[in-house]
Design brief:
The chain is of the alpha/beta class and about 650 residues long. It is built from 23 helices and 21 strands. The strands form three sheets. Strands 4, 13, 14, 15, 16, 17, 18, 19, 20 and 21 form a ten-stranded mixed β-sheet that branches. Strand 5, helix 5 and strand 6 form a beta-alpha-beta unit. The longest helix has 22 residues.
């Protein structure tokens, strides 16, 4: 047990900062999950992987911890409960989970089950999500909120759900939607859903999704349109159906000041609407509670400079103050935050298949090259490279490195012109790589690494090939440069010796993770251990929000295996559910391939091979059976 090294690992990977009491490194050097956020109840992730393998699952896989969902729901509820008590707020708090954040049935099942005691509801933004949400038996007080753009069929669903007894609110995004509801209402007056109006604030959010808010936002009614909507409702005699005002300033709000500005503006609008004679019961403050992915607690795009309790305090306090000044009753606050509920509950795990790069190529014996450097016919630049390699030191490394660049470029030009052979080029490349490594080593003694050596270090890092698809498992890392905590799941009692980036197995150069979290800045390399004969697993954390919803099947790599884990109060844990990933056949059928037609084609081609004498009949039959078997296997690499 190397406690000092384990503590260094905790600090280096920042797990105590972003782990939110759900993740830690134990004294054996393994990463653990604490599903109930209790320190003494931990599940070592390497043990979960071994249990999954015994059940027939292999890497890559998702480790799910549904109790974490329950824990986050409880934290959200408690934060608002305490804020309401502290500021003597007369209204209530109701929360809904946005379907779009994670549409997996297993996840929504867990949210609905965990949220029953708190009247937790659902939010939908499409007819597909709506149809799924209707199948859940929510409490009578739980809200079912319909956002997004709506057509006649969407509105019809809303009327039917009201008839089913759902506490539904249709949030109107534009005048056409309102007219559709008004036209439908006389036909079903007892089943007309409650109506909400989404307001477009001038206040803007902060972070990557800032454009979701402000005057140029895609959603919401301007002040003029809001007044028109109120008049339309009154003219239709549906003013009593107005139950909610709603705003949303974007996902992952990084700066609490921006939210305080927005809640202040929205509270004032709410009060003015009430003073105009309307009585909306709810003020929906949208989602956007940030997840501190890097643990820095700053307004950086992958962080948030506030806690959940601070968010709740500000929402409740500002709304109370404005309502009191306007002499308006306090409304029920509705939140739609999904990222903070979902992010922590799942971990993507992959195994490292090989390491590419200079540090792992080790020292290739220069005698292996069939080039005699004493031969007068050998080009002078190659001899100069050998001289630099033999004589570079701490005093001359900067000058010698520049010279090496010049000689290497000259030799490459000569090869392209046909003046030197492949053996000479290969030796030149190896000498140049060795010189670069030595120059980097000597440069590291300087207090500040020069910019050119920083660039060299980025080019020479190892590439750890991970058995997964970035586009499938962490698409936001590729599409919007989202940072996720990444770290090995074991060996934290050993000091990592490699600086590396992570590449996936897709045939795409964008399939690379080369930005990593740090409390002060973005790191371009990750500290990893040198491979040995044991499997080496890497975990991507806080990936439970949006990643599965946005996953794409680049190169036809589909959904990966899953295992669900439940922690018992006695410290034991069990795998409660396993789910196999998408097999090749299913992925092909989703692209309109017919498996039976493909099998017929295989059989026909094999028969031609037999007829031409390339194969024997029994060989063809064996191949046909093997080909059919591939429709049922995983597209990912077999685990070693």
């Amino acid at each position: 047990m190397n406690i000092k090294q384990i503590q260094e690992a905790r600090e280096a990977y920042g797990i105590d900062d972003w782990g939110a009491e759900y993740f830690s490194i134990d004294d054996a050097g393994d990463v653990c999950c604490h599903p109930t956020s209790e320190e003494h109840l931990g599940v070592p992730l390497p043990e979960v992987i071994e249990a999954a393998k015994k059940k027939g699952l292999t890497s890559p896989m998702i480790l799910r911890f549904p109790q974490v969902i329950e824990g986050q729901l409880e934290r959200m509820h408690t934060a608002f409960k305490e804020a309401i008590w502290e500021y003597s707020f007369k209204g209530k708090h109701r929360a809904v989970f946005p379907f779009k954040v994670n549409q997996r049935r297993e996840f929504i099942d867990a949210v609905v089950e965990a949220g029953k005691n708190h009247h937790y509801g659902l939010e939908v933004g499409s007819k597909t999500e709506f149809a799924a949400a209707l199948s859940y038996r929510l409490s009578d007080q739980a809200l079912l909120i319909c956002n997004g753009f709506k057509d006649q069929e969407f509105i019809d669903l809303a009327f039917m759900s009201a008839g089913m007894g759902k506490n539904i609110v249709v949030v109107v995004e534009g005048p056409d939607e309102l007219e559709t509801i008004i036209t439908q209402a006389p036909k079903n007056p007892t089943h007309c859903p409650k109506i909400g109006l989404r307001i477009r604030l001038s206040s803007k959010g902060a972070g990557k999704w800032e454009k979701s808010s402000g005057e140029t936002s895609k959603f919401g009614l301007t002040a003029v349109e809001l007044l028109q909507a109120l008049q339309i409702l009154e003219k239709a005699g549906l003013q009593d159906n107005l139950a909610m005002l709603h705003f949303h300033i974007g996902s992952q709000i990084t700066a609490i000041k921006r939210f305080k500005n927005a809640i202040k503006e929205a509270s004032r609008i709410y009060c003015k609407v009430c003073k105009a004679g309307y009585q909306p019961e709810y003020l929906n403050i949208g989602g956007g509670v940030g997840v501190d992915y890097d643990g820095s607690r700053t307004s950086f795009a992958s962080s948030a400079n506030y806690s959940l309790q601070e968010f709740a305090n500000d929402a409740v306090y500002v709304l109370k103050e404005v309502c009191n000044k306007e002499n308006i009753d306090h409304p029920t606050i509705v939140t739609e935050s999904g990222r903070v509920i979902a992010a922590y509950h799942s971990v993507v795990v992959t195994d490292i298949r090989e390491v590419q790069g200079d540090e792992t190529s080790h020292d290739i014996d220069l005698d292996l090259f069939d080039v005699d450097l004493k031969d007068p016919q050998v080009h002078k630049s190659l001899k100069e490279l050998k001289y630099i390699y033999d004589n570079i030191n701490r005093k001359n490394h900067n000058e010698y490195y520049h010279d090496a660049i010049e000689y290497q470029e000259e030799l490459l030009s000569l090869f392209n012109l046909g003046y030197i052979d492949l053996q000479t080029r290969a030796l030149a490349e190896e000498l140049y790589r060795k010189i670069c490594r030595r120059a980097l080593y000597f440069a590291s003694f300087q207090r500040h690494l020069p910019e050119e050596f920083e660039s060299l270090q980025k080019r020479m890092v190892n590439k750890y090939l991970a058995n997964f698809s970035i586009f499938q498992s962490i698409p936001d890392a590729w599409s919007i440069d989202q940072l996720f905590p990444v770290m090995p799941l074991s060996r934290h009692d050993q000091k990592p010796s490699q600086k590396a980036t992570i590449v996936d197995i897709t045939c795409d150069s964008d399939g690379c993770v080369d930005q990593f979290i740090d409390r002060r800045e973005i790191k371009t390399v990750l500290d990893l251990h040198e491979p040995n004969n044991e499997p080496y697993y890497i975990g991507f954390f806080l990936v439970g929000a949006y990643q599965e919803s946005l996953a794409n099947e680049h190169n036809l790599f589909g959904a990966i295996n899953e295992i669900e884990v439940f922690m018992k109060s006695d410290g034991e844990w069990e795998a409660t559910k396993v789910t196999n990933g998408d097999p090749i056949g299913e992925l092909l059928e989703c692209r309109n391939y017919s498996i039976s037609e493909m099998e017929d084609s295989y059989h026909s081609q094999l028969r031609d091979a037999v007829d031409s004498g390339r194969l024997k009949s029994d060989q063809a039959e064996e191949m046909f059976e093997q080909l059919k078997r591939y429709f049922g296997v995983s597209p990912y690499l077999l685990e070693k």
